[in-house]
Amino acid sequence: MLYKNREGNLRYFVLWQLVGVALIATVIYLSLTPKPPRIPLDIEWGDKLGHFLAYFTLMAWHAQLYRGAGTRLALAIAFIGMGIGLEYLQAAGGVRMFEWADALANSLGALAAFSASYTRMAFVLQRLEQRFIG
Fold first, then answer.
1. CA-CA to 12 of 20 to 30 Å: which in 20, 43, 112, 126?
2. pLDDT of 86 over the 50 cut
3. Is 80 exceeded by the pLDDT of residue 32?
4. What is the rounded CA–CA span in Å between residue 128 and residue 34?
């Protein structure tokens, strides 16, 4: 068993934290690489959907690890700040550009997951551990 989190609800808390760090690192890399992979979505604003889903995933994942209302709010603010900050860094790099629509999609994804973290969605990892791991 890996270290439990303070609430004691996740047996593999450290493993889940490492996955969360990997998710953040992936989003940072994809945001700053000069040639990000293109996913062929035949829908209008498909790249904005990708931004939304990336930040929804970050917030949803971390909201399961840190359940305190104040902590979840701080995470949402941090992910919104990260999304806006990465847009500025893209512009500063000279290869990609700042897009307000991307920053908005990032923010909406984080806010949607923040809202969903007050539903049963907040217990997906806990149920996964109970059902499949132990």
1. 112
2. yes
3. yes
4. 37
